[in-house]
Amino acid sequence: xxxxxxxxxxxxxxxxxxxxxxxxxxxxDTIQDFKSSRYFMLDVIGxxxxxxxxxxxxKKRGYDPIPIWTTGSSDKxxxxxxxxxxxxxxxGLTSAAYYTGYLKKHWHKLKGRKAxxxxxxxxxxxxxxKPYSVDASSWTKCIRFxxxxxxxxxxxxxxxxxxxxx
Length: 166
Fold this sequence. Notes:
4-stranded parallel sheet; single chain; two-stranded parallel sheet
């Protein structure tokens, strides 16, 4: 199983809570066999400068997180992150306006490199942009609606009904 851990920064932000970098790092240290899994850095919602500082601190401490390029970050930060890794997350995409406008405007700057869209599962966006990976809380729709679409990469999906998962 390929496991990809999100820090929970967006959820905490929505609940007016803060995750401290030291606490997140301590949590990463508690996970057994974590070296075979990937994890995102702890980003700071609405603060691209603090987000990049957190990334640099985590790297200095010996962690190898997937960096997150957020809305409001400069284009130079895309290259900064790709100079250090082959895979980045793109955050701050919490509304359809960002899907259609912001992503469309900036997608070419990724130059076909691996990118994860945080909080995006809109099939139209995914099938057009073809990101490396995506996530969102909408995976729970299987419980609510009896169907689940699994993103296979390269803009392709596989649909399952609740009965397929028994």
